[in-house]
Structures are given as structure tokens and as C-alpha cells.
Amino acid sequence: MNRQVRVLGVPMDLGADRRGVDMGPSAIRYGGLAEQIESAGIDCVDGGDIHVPRPEERDPDAGSPTPGRAKFFRETKEVCEDVATAVDATVGEGGFPLVLGGDHSIAVGTLAGAARDDEDLGVVWFDAHGDFNTPETTPSGNIHGMSLAAVLGRGPFADHEWAHTPAVSEENVVIVGLRDVDEGERRLIRESEATAFTMSDIDARSAPEVVAEALEIATDGTDGIHVSLDMDWLDPTEAPGVGTPVRGGVSYREAHTAMEYVAEHHKRLRSMEVVEVNPILDQHNKTAELACELVASAFGKRVL
């Protein structure tokens, strides 16, 4: 990568019930993010944090089109609009936006900003969860489980420009590593044109083969790609400090290999985010430090 990386923190925990992911950006920075990026030969600057209101000071149903079914809808909109503006400015200046979460609802803002020039974007979504719920299907009302559906304009999100990103087409969206899917979103994923690879697919075919196909789908006919890395994609033995851990994820080596494949598409890579690091649940900042390593691999760092 020959672009300067601009780090943008989004200490967001409005999209989930479990507190702690708001400290994720600080934990990742403390884990050596800048040093890891610079060790890959890439210039890195820190753009600071986007302001996020405290949930204790807000009514989760105020301003929501579906009270009780999309918590902190208004606040999520405000934050994601600010994220989109910062990401758009970074891309417009020729930089590369690396957005640190926070919960996965911030992806709505990242993608909106990365696609503001109306170029078509593919998406590779590394996650244990589909994030394909809508307010009609959600069992929790948490928007971090609706972020990908929102980007694709599903459900009531189709009527909200801050969420729906028309430059992202379902046929260029790939979810990698699924292993915990709600019943309602399972149906939506099956009915969609998005591609979903479960952990069973990775077990049967190998991580390199699945990730290679995912990148091929995401880059087919698009102008660039966005990579969304939820750290719960990894097995909790590797990444214990995440918002919603699920047993049976990818290994340390499989995750690095996947990011190395991402690095091979660096000319097409438009933006990236790392989300759901929860220092409260972590062990000696292990998950945040691993996130830093994986980012470096995605930017081209190698053993030799």
C-alpha cells in the first residue's frame, strides 16, 4: 500500500447490550497499532475519535421509527453520519481510512463515507454473525446486529440515506466465518444475493480457498473493496476480548493468512474497519494486540 493510513476511532457501544467495546479504539492503539502499520513500511497518522454520546444520557427509543426494535436509532444515525464525513474526507485526500470500533454498527458510517463518490464497492465481512437482522427480525433490538442489512437497504433502512449505501450491491457482498445466526436473519441471508461462507465451509475447503473466492466475488465488477473485520470472527481462545464471543472460530494462523490474501488486493482496498474489541473481557490486551497484527498483515507485513 502506498497511501497514508489515517486511523479514526469510534468509541461506540450504543449498538449492543454489553458494555466495554467503547474502549476498543484505545485498547487497539495501546496495543501498538501505529508501530505495526509503520513496520509494514506505511505512513500512519491518527485522526482522533468521533464523538459518541453516552447511552446513560439518552432514551434508546427516542427518534426510533420502530421503538424497542432499533435501540439508539437517532444516536447511531448521528455518529454514522460523522464517521461517513471523516471517511469521505480521508478518501478524498488520497488517504486510507482505518476505522476502529466500537461495535459493528459503525460499519454503516464507514461504508457510506467510502462510497460517497458513487463508485461501486464490494464488501468482505469477516464475522461470526450475519449482522443481517432488521427491526422486524431482531431478537434484541441492537443495531450492531443489523449493520449489513442497513447498508443494503433492507427493511426500514431503505428509507434512510444515512444507512442505505446503493453503491454496495448484494452480489458483491461476502460474509466469511458465520457460525451464529438468528432464525429471522438466516432466512434473509438465504433470500439475498449476498454470499455467505460458514465455518463449516472453511473447515471443508480451507481458509485460504474460501477467502480467495470471497475476494474474487467482492472485486468482480467493482471499483474497490471494503474489509470489515469483527474480532469475534476468531475463536475466543485466540481473541477472548470481544463483544459477542462464539466458540469455533478461525485460528490465529488462519486469520493472518486471510489478511495476507487481503493485502494481495491492496490496489483495490478502499477502506477497512476493526470492531468489537472489548478490553473488559480481554486478557492482558491480547485481543487488541492481535487486531494490530492482523491489520499489519492486511497492509502487507510479512515474515520475509
TrEMBL record:
It comes from the Archaea. It catalyses: L-arginine + H2O = urea + L-ornithine. Belongs to the arginase family. GO terms for molecular function: arginase activity; manganese ion binding. The keyword Transmembrane helix does not apply. Pathway: Nitrogen metabolism; urea cycle; L-ornithine and urea from L-arginine: step 1/1. Gene3D superfamilies: Ureohydrolase domain (3.40.800.10). Residues 47-67 are annotated as: Disordered. Its EC number is 3.5.3.1. GO terms for biological process: arginine metabolic process. This is Arginase. It is an enzyme of class 3 (hydrolase). The keyword Manganese applies. It comes from Haloarcula salina. Coiled coil: none annotated. Signal peptide: none annotated. Mn(2+) 1 binds at residues 104, 127, 129, 131, 230. InterPro entries: Arginase (IPR014033), Ureohydrolase (IPR006035), Ureohydrolase_dom_sf (IPR023696), Ureohydrolase_Mn_BS (IPR020855). The gene is rocF. Its cofactor is Mn(2+). Binds 2 manganese ions per subunit.
